[in-house]
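Bit of a strange request maybe. I'm writing a small parser for structure token strings and I need a real example to test against, not something I typed by hand. Could someone generate the tokens for this chain?
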Amino acid sequence: MARRGWYVLSLLLAVPIAVTTAAAQALPPDQALARAILAEMIDVNTTFERGNTTPVAEVVARRFLAAGFPAADVHVVGATAKNRNVVVRFRGSGARRPILLIGHIDVVEALRKDWSLDPFTLTERDGFFYGRGTSDMKDMSAIWVATLLRLKREGFRPDRDIILALTAGEEGGDDNGIRWLLAHHRDLIDAAYCINGEGGDPLSRNGKVFVRNVQASEKVYMDVHLEVHNPGGHSSLPVKDNAIYHLAAALRLLAAYEFPARLNEVTRAYFERAAGTFPPPIAADMRLVAAQGDTAAARRLSDGSALLNAQLRTTCVATRLAAGHANNALPQTATANVNCRMLPDERPEDVIATLLRVVDDTAVAVSPAMTPVPSPPSPLVPEVLEPVERITAAMWPGVPVVPSMETGATDGLWLRNAGIPVYGISGVPLDEDDIRAHGRDERIRVGSFDAGVTFSYRLVKALAGGSS
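Reply from user aminoacidic:
Good idea to test on real output. This should exercise your parser:
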């Protein structure tokens, strides 16, 4: 087993030679390094279903050890030998508490038959990098590694330790890396705050950046179980009391219901700052909502955009159905899963109570299918926002920096609950209308990746302070 691991490592370390072209060799060294690391990561299947993050974690560790990082500051750890995490500490003066950079190196499943090219080979074509994880999120994981290696090579002496944690289990599986580290090795990742390489992306249209998001909060995930039981019987003798009909009626009522629109600190700032990036009629409504809570304006925004609707309110949507036990029998059971994404300050018991009121049918049992984990917002502090605004202005003049609320979920959830504020700040601009994360032929622009290398280097250096 160990010999096989070293063989894999030797192959991975040879990848940059295999993929480097004459054009790549002409790149600035730091961009070339980041691209080589990205290729190493993409070329390994790190899905939970058929892959393993440990080879990538070990290759990253080898790079840091070769760069002169002490072995005591480089850790490849995890619950088992498979799907391990890598944690690296860049030592500073200790004048301030450490900062934590995180990214995940696991990816969602990708089958070769579904793609037009090999999902586990980094391919450059027509100005894009293709491969599973190019946007979610081996791009930023590779950039974090390249950034710390560059700072080390330059002799940078930060005012605080810089911790990098690249983890497994973010996309699924039994051992979420951040949760495992918090439970078993919190000392390795404890920090004043965290910069998460996903959840806050610059967005572009036709290759031009128009907004720079900073994710400061997340919605709260809760699955709700709807279930109807019935004595059933022979299908040749139907009765009106049918479990499927009860459930269908309940779901129709839920489909028609909307939770009230309301703002919090982060979403209010989003509607204020992002308004200028939308067409004038939408921008006007966003400003009305931010300033006055205008209900008519909120209605128009919700009707016109699933994104803006999700920013404005808690949402609950049916995602799975099951019913019956035979084609010639009346159903004895009918069930549905309703997935709720709650505003950060929404109480789960209030959501359940609302769903019960909307359904208004004692035959339909409504219960939480899980215990939701709250996600307290991170404060919008100048220490983080000011460097982001300064670097954004230098790289993309006129582009607003916009605090945002993630409608999905990231590993920031676990850190926020452990008392470590988290700010989602990716450096890689994503095309607004071509986001392929989790999908077929996932890709990012080559130029966007290179911009991410520059942005992230400047940001880490500014947040860490110190001198070269």
